[in-house]
Design brief:
heterodimer; A: alpha+beta; Multidrug efflux transporter AcrB transmembrane fold; Gyrase A, domain 2; 5-stranded mixed barrel; 4-stranded antiparallel β-sheet; 15 helices; 20 strands; B: alpha+beta; Alpha-Beta Plaits; 11 helices; 10 strands; 60% helix; elongated
Amino acid sequence: MERSWWWKAVGILLLIVVSVVYLLPTVVGERRLPAWFTKYVDKKMQLGLDLQGGIHLVYEVEVDKAVSDKADRLAADIEERLIKDKKVKVKITREGRDDIIVSFAKPSDTKVMDKKLMADYRANLDEIERDEGKGVVRLRMDEEYVKEVHDYALRQGIETLRGRVDKFGVSEPSIRAKGRDIVVELPGLGKKDFERVKRIIGRTAQLEFKMCDDSNEFMTRAAAKVPKGGPIEVRTDSFDGKKRGTVVHSFLQSKDKKALEKFIKGLGMPKTHEILLGEEQAKDEKGNDLPEKMWHTYFLHRRSELTGEYITDAEVQWDERTGRPEVGLTFDRNGASIFERVSGDHVGERLAIILDEKVNSAPVFQGRIGGGRARITLGGFKDPFALQQEAKDLVAVLRTGALPAPLRKVFETQVGPTLGRDAVRKGMLAFSIGGGMVLLFMFYYYKGSGFIADLGLLINFLFIAAILCGFEATLTLPGIAGLVLTIGMAVDANVIIYERIREELALGKSPRASVDAGYSRAFWTIFDAQLTTAIAAFVLMQYGSGPIRGFAVTLLVGIICSIFSGVVVTRLMMDFVVAKFRPKTLSI
Amino acid sequence: MARWIKPNINIDFISARKTFWVLSGLLIVASIGMLVFNGLVRGDVLNYSTDFKGGSEIQVEFSKEVGSGQVRSALDRSGFKGAEVVRVTDSSRPFFFMIRLTEVSAFSASDQTKVENKLESTFQKANIVRFDYKSGSDKVYIHFKRGHKVSPNGVEQVFKDSGVETQQVQRFGRAEDNVFEVVLVGLDRDIRRVFDSTLGKGTVKDIPQVESVGAKMGKQLRDDGIKSVIYALLLMLVYIAFRFDFQYAPGAVVALAHDVIITTGLFALTWHEFSLSVVAALLTIAGYSINDTIVVYDRIRENVAKLRDRKFPLVVNTSINETLSRTLLTSLTTLFTCISIWVVGTGVLKTFAFALTAGVLIGTYSSVFIASPITILLNEKFAKKKAR
């Protein structure tokens, strides 16, 4: 044998070994494999929603409703100010999504809507028309502002859904934005969970503010009870508590949210307090930030001081002094007075901002805050871009109270687990029957060479399966069909080559020369032919959703592996036969 | 040695080419005719699945024998008008039905009227600013007049009194806005209630699958489907024009458009459900059909160089014959797998395999009888131009 043959053979053997290694976690199961093994290879093929059961929801963020609601509210505010403060007779009507029309009973009153009054609405409204003769002013929602509402609504929707999905303990939840829509996929849920998921997921988020009780000894005592070496770690942190000096407090952090919740449950909480969790930068023992995020505990007074409905707006601002982003918050009249009292009573304490029972942030009150406007400075020494993202996320959370953008369900599929199991069984059956028939046929029609093609087909399937596992591809019902189809089409390469070899043999060439000619002439034909199917698969991957994408992926992977094993792997075996045994005739 | 096709076979495919063009032309006309016929008689050109049409598809397994008529009338009486009820044969589930509804939520138009009337009588019409419900949504928003005192429980009671089950009622936005958000129950829960109350408690054993698609989403999915077919065809055309001569591309594309149209026509004729996975099957057929065609074209190109003394039509005919064995064998192995899915599979998979099986057969036919002869037609045109 030539040296290059051996190199190729070693290469393919290596590929086979690697493929088997990658298949192990999926076939044998992670738990039965030693830890040193799963440390390096832990990727598994995922089953799609249609196979393992679960729920797939698509929500549309109703931006138009959010904008229209905001316009309604601004109209009501303006009406109240004009009638109560300016004491003029006025009628306010809304037109479409964006327009507010202010009509004064006495045209001369139009001038009370002066620059000073309008300055408060500068960010939200543009004056489109002013007719002092008739006493009519037309205002319209600012375009920039509408766009901003849209961006935040989407962010807010995703943030809310993420927080809620965390509660279901689904192993591979997926929440992503697709255009104006949010796609939620929760595989592996039982039937009983479906109603619960839909109830919790669909409703609009609740925003609350509660005071942290950091000087309480409770957490220090709780920290002493934490088992050493477990998933939960005890950390301390400190902040400037103003009059109270530096406040040092203990908290717990863990990657494992469930373990943390279980531990907290066993603590015996006083009725007046509660512990909620937030996802924060993990800290090392010295209190320095680590790159990963962990769940942190917050020890809180159970009573909520304020709820989101008192907030009229939230936005990202820039601190003029440091140039760092911060979050600006505006309260309505009631909210402003509550906030002034709370901030005055709790100077040097932390206020936890809680969305759907998850703590998002806990800034410290630096002093009494009056006037209904607050600023939240973000902690940590992150780069400006990360800080800006954080600020935007916080704004999205804060706006849930003031500017909730409701989510409207536009698509839903829920599949029970039994149906999926049935489908997998049937898919496998079809696969075995179809594959078996192809193997038998090839052996019958091409005898010895057919056997080589069959070996190639098995190796091909091994590669396909290993790639799907290695990339953690999702196997769907159409995906299984794609696999079965691939097996049928994969032998095409061999059929093209073998027919060619037969032709060459018929011309009187030797077996070796015929094999050479067959493979070299057939390659581009095979390549061109398979590439067109690959184009179809590629387009499907761009446009298909869920199950269809699964089909496209298996088809594409199948095509690549089929070309490789059809042209390279079987060639190697054929070469071995003709070079080693130098047969007079070829079994083909 | 097994050899079904003799190596020196020489069937005359070319002389009869016009006959096959007429045959295919007729098939295409019939397919389009069938689509039009369905559009006029059945109300829709194809039996679009819920993905495309919007609405809901619910699979219900009953615990005892019930007739389709019973199921339909039970739904009808409960306000789900025009439900489509199909019995599914499944060996492991004896009383299995698929129900398709035009509704996407349990809140029907008549429910809405009832609730609105009840709201007006409870809170006075003047106090209700707006009743916000978009069809298909799982939520209702009720805007009350500012300052009018309303509690979530009060709103919930109104729904209850109108016979509409709710999951949750909560305030929406700021308190002074006086807006309430009502989360409605899922369709599956409502369907279970309907059957339990009309056909006896415990009639519904299981609801293994529910799918509901809003009208807008359905349109988007349909548009995506059409777009994907067009893009795939265009990309393939570009590839062939690039790899081969431009005179080859039209033949290939005509052949695969032919395959896609006739397969779609079959769906129109058999009234099998036309879903997203059928579109995926159509694209695979396109890829497969062109795959067959390319193998023949490759041989034509090779032979044109080799057999310079022969006329082009003859070269084409030789090439078809030389590759005939391969064409048939590959179609056969592919058919093995498609048919095994067709036989074993149920539901979506069965329809999918049906499309593929039909497509492979039509694709094989078209690459031999349609695609290659078209190159002759174009070759004649090109040759004439050159001669001038």
